[in-house]
Design brief:
This protein has 185 residues and is mainly β. It contains two helices and 13 strands. The protein has helices spanning 6-9, 166-184, and strands spanning 2-5, 22-26, 29-32, 36-40, 42-48, 57-60, 64-70, 75-88, 93-106, 111-122, 132-136, 142-147, 156-160. Strands 1, 2, 3, 4, 5, 6, 7, 8, 9, 10, 11, 12 and 13 form a 13-stranded mixed sheet that branches. 31% of the residues are buried.
């Protein structure tokens, strides 16, 4: 299921968070969904995986989330957008690939995966005093994410993505051309 404009879908009948697996709150309305891609729209609160026995995956490419909470055994993948706070609990996972994330918190058996390069984290400082993650996303955009609680560190996994240098790509391309040329002769 793809959600285009969250405002247009907010006309759905109101549900409570206890009877849906995933809820997107915008101006008090609730939008249920399972294994959803959110491409645009401002979201007040995003709840993933609560009151649901299975696993849910949400891919977010949107514009803004004020507050996201991921629980159960669900997964939230962030590919862009601006997010104030993400809280990850239970056995859920958060995968960060891009975007402007202000603060993360993690507890339980959850995992926070950060994919980029030149990644590092400090356990002191930042806006909350509990440290931050810094580095670059794969698209070379700088990242700086505050850590909301000191216990979050044991849940963070930094994944450095190898980005080939332009000269390496050029040599690989020339080698491929030479290989093709030999085969034709």
């Amino acid at each position: 299921m793809k959600i285009g404009n969250v405002l247009a879908l907010a006309v759905l009948t109101a549900l409570t968070a206890s009877n849906v697996c995933t809820a997107y709150y915008y101006d008090g309305n609730v939008i249920p969904g399972i294994d959803t891609v959110i491409e645009e729209g401002d979201i007040c609160q995003l709840l993933v995986g609560f009151a649901c026995p299975g696993s849910i995956t949400i891919d977010f490419f949107g514009e803004h989330i004020s507050n996201a909470i991921v629980g159960g055994s669900s997964h939230l993948n962030i590919f862009g957008g601006d997010i104030n706070l993400i809280t990850v609990t239970d056995s859920s996972s958060l995968n960060l690939y891009a975007g402007q994330i202000s603060c993360i918190r993690a507890g339980g058996d959850s995992v926070v995966n950060v994919f980029g390069y030149d990644l590092d984290y400090a356990n002191v400082g930042g806006s909350h005093g509990d440290g931050w993650i810094s580095g670059f996303w794969a698209d070379e955009t700088a990242l700086s994410i505050d850590i909301g609680e000191s216990y979050t560190y044991s849940h963070i996994a930094l994944h450095d993505i190898a980005i080939p240098e332009p000269a390496t790509l050029l040599l690989l391309g020339l080698g491929g051309l030479a290989f093709l040329r030999k085969r034709r002769v």
